[in-house]
Design brief:
about 45% helix; TIM Barrel; two-stranded antiparallel ribbon; about 15% strand; single chain
Amino acid sequence: MGKPSFGVELHQYHDARTVLEEAQLAERLGYDSVWFGDSQLIWRELYVLLGAAAATTSRIRLGTGVTNPVTRHPTVTASAIATAQELTGGRAILGIGVGDTALKSMGMTATSRAALASYVQTVRALCRSETVRAPTGEMRLAYASAATDPPIVIGASGPKMLRLAGEIGDGVIVTRQARAGQTLAAMMGCVAAGRAAAGRADRPFMTCVSASVAVHPDREKALLAVRSHVASTLRHVHWELSEPARRAAAALQTAYDIYEHMSPTAQHAALIPPEVITEYAIAGAPEECIAQARGLFEAGADEITIRPYAVEGGTRAATIEAFASLVMARLLKA
């Protein structure tokens, strides 16, 4: 295992100024990346905040976590991420998946893997200033160059999407699953198969494992803080579930409210029992969180991307600080 890397994913259910301040805090605390989500009806706008963060930070990588091929035309995504790459001096990352709440909030469904692959190919070509043939004619991003070509990482969870991530991506974003070490190893096997099939096995590749996080001496408070994110994870199940998790996942099929997606106040979070929470989150007392994070790195993660949640009586920023001082610092010293 190399030097651990840590990122922060800031879902924009907080106001825009607070989210920007959290991104700046993450850089000061030594995190390696900040990611913003893309769900236009429930969160603040991705690229507005990405641009603001680009202009007010100097070191940290800035990523989309994740956008989709449906709500944004490939020329729009290419122009947006190329501009971010230019503004940051090469710190931008394009994270993309087939779509979730950005589409479901409009009554739409996720796109296909084939459509995603085609979209990624088009965006990558445009960011490299290559001419792309479209049904309506040729198109080219006029100001693009080698300097505006960002790494593209694919959000994936199931075996087929993970294989596709290996085939077309410069990295993959996965969400922590139960039986973390064994499941992550199986997921990485799918990615490796895709990379080998596409002849990309020797190219640089980044594996980011996203996990909801709450660190607190009172273990029960920490577990309660991340329930809404665990509920989100259980909506898309591709790997073996414990019996309590299976029951919770079944209940969520009808109870989940997408307008409360990952919100710390989501009412459907009450369906998640305590014994399920630690299967899908890094939560609890500091020593427990250190052990959970270390296990993910040992299983193959290059970066742990935390999705911080405020513990009762605290703030999300306080969780970002607590993880940095109580968990991240300890792992970096190991």
